From TrEMBL:
Belongs to the aldehyde dehydrogenase family. The active site is at 224. It comes from the Bacteria. This is Aldehyde dehydrogenase. Signal peptide: none annotated. The keyword Transit peptide does not apply. Pfam families: Aldedh (PF00171). Keywords: Oxidoreductase. One of its GO terms (molecular function) is oxidoreductase activity, acting on the aldehyde or oxo group of donors, NAD or NADP as acceptor. Residues 8-450 form the Aldehyde dehydrogenase domain.
Length: 457
């Protein structure tokens, strides 16, 4: 593993797993499942809470490692770990009441409806927020009585693997298993007959292969996929007041978040003022290594993503759009030794162009004018993605009215980013942005089967 911000630095060496390793991990998870599922739910909750405590204690050691292997800022990796701990504790807090069997009884019969675990879960995790995204799967899976095999991303395997190893040490053997590797390992997990549930976070194209593999043995799946999140700005906002929060929602993790703002729709009447204000705020971003305390944005994670974003920017420059590359380079002499891209803001762009319609997953944002609110909503919905969205207005009631017309899994008002998520609200997308939901009791529901028992009196 090489540091995306300092490519000459080797961060870690990670064993590359094989198909045979994946098979052994699934066998171990299945054997552990036979006893883990029999534990009282209260015992499982306490065990998972103990693992969460171990995870929390690992933050000082592992968050700098994560910053070096995936390119994020140290503060962003600390948020990743902290969110993972919080999600686990929240899930533990709602599980016992949810898992209580339902009883229906009358003078003729009694019905008991139990919620039972599925079995072995394959959890396939991406590189951008690997700790939180892993625990969004593991917490509900383990508490409901399943066992897991985790496949980290090859672009950020080290910190997650070490964190899971620490957590596994306080759980029965085989409850948590990890196999690193490439696509062949992922396919071995998604096709394995003993895997009864797949939870995948990643790209839509890979998800299609996951679905096809799951179909061979009719596995249950949860997919949390890409987004092309719109932010709709209403005409009553003060651009200077909302801009810091909006820019944060665009450029956190260098734009490499599935529900980051990917396109901004602005009233034509305030387009020039809005664009100029955005450029002023974006120009204050300091781009550098994730462990440099001065940095407010790090590099992108890997060569393919770097080249994809650079090509998008170059393609946009060749059109009639106005492209502004902003921000400040920290240690510019190091830039050839990392995947650094300046934050880029684009205006006067064709609303059907590639930059607007794709998931950029990088630090570049198109700003598109609209004449009427109906037009803005139509453009926002004109996509096969449907993860998140946001509406910005001085009138919350008006913003909510617009939010109800957006085709997305969730809509945030006057904010957009990690700090706006709430574990009490379901997280997930519609259309090609996913299947299923994480957070809330719905996350637990994705990892259980219903078992009904009825008898006559």
């Amino acid at each position: 593993m090489k540091d995306p911000g300092r490519l000459t630095d080797v961060v870690a060496r990670v064993a590359k797993g094989t198909v045979e390793d994946a098979d052994h991990a699934v066998e171990a998870a299945h054997n552990a499942f036979l006893s883990w599922r029999k534990l009282d739910v209260g015992e499982r909750i306490q065990a998972v809470l103990a693992a969460a405590k171990v995870l929390e204690e690992s933050i000082p050691q592992l968050s700098p490692l994560l910053a070096r292997e995936h390119g994020g800022l140290l503060g962003e990796t600390q948020v990743d770990f902290g969110y993972a701990v919080g999600v686990t504790r929240f899930t533990a807090g709602i599980a016992e009441s949810y898992l209580t069997p339902q009883v229906i009884e009358d003078e003729t019969c009694r019905i008991e409806i139990e919620k039972v675990p599925r079995g072995v879960v394959a959890a396939i995790v991406p590189w951008n927020y690997p700790i939180a995204l892993a625990m969004m799967k593991l917490a509900p899976a383990l508490i409901t009585g399943n066992t897991v095999v985790v496949k980290p991303s090859p672009f950020a395997p080290a910190a997650l693997t070490l964190a899971l190893k620490k957590m596994a040490s306080v759980l029965p053997p085989g409850v948590i298993n990890v196999v690193n590797g490439d696509g062949d390992v992922g396919a071995a997990l998604t096709r394995h007959p003993l895997v009864r549930k797949i939870s995948f976070t990643g790209g839509t194209q890979t998800a299609k292969h996951v679905m096809a593999d799951a179909a061979s043995t009719i596995k249950n799946i949860t997919l949390e996929l890409g987004g092309n999140d719109p932010a709709i700005i209403l005409d009553d906002v003060n651009p200077a007041e909302i801009m810091p929060a909006l820019v944060k929602g665009i450029f956190t993790r260098s734009g490499q978040i599935c529900f980051a703002v990917k396109r901004v729709y602005v009233p034509q009447s305030m387009y020039d003022k809005f664009f100029d204000t955005m450029c002023q705020v974006v120009d204050e971003i300091k781009v550098g290594h994730g462990l440099d305390e001065r940095s407010t944005m790090g590099p992108v994670n890997n060569r393919n993503q770097y080249q994809f974003v650079k090509d998008l920017i170059q393609q946009t420059k060749q059109s009639n759009a106005v492209v502004r590359e902003l921000g400040q380079k920290l240690q510019p002499e190091e830039w050839e030794n990392g995947y650094y891209i300046l934050p880029t803001v684009v205006r006067d762009i064709d609303p059907t162009s590639t930059l607007v319609c794709c998931e950029q997953f990088g630090p570049v944002i198109p700003v598109i004018p609209y004449q009427t609110l109906e037009q803005a909503i139509e453009m926002a919905n004109d996509t096969e993605f449907g993860l998140g969205s946001s509406v910005w207005s001085a009138d919350r009631n008006r913003a909510v009215e617009v939010a109800r017309q957006i085709e997305a899994g969730f809509t945030l008002i006057n904010g957009h980013g990690i700090d706006m998520l709430d574990v009490r609200m379901p997280f997930g997308g519609i259309k090609q942005s996913g299947i299923g939901r994480e957070f809330t009791e719905l996350s637990l529901a994705d990892y259980i089967e219903y078992h009904g028992i009825r008898y006559l009196k």
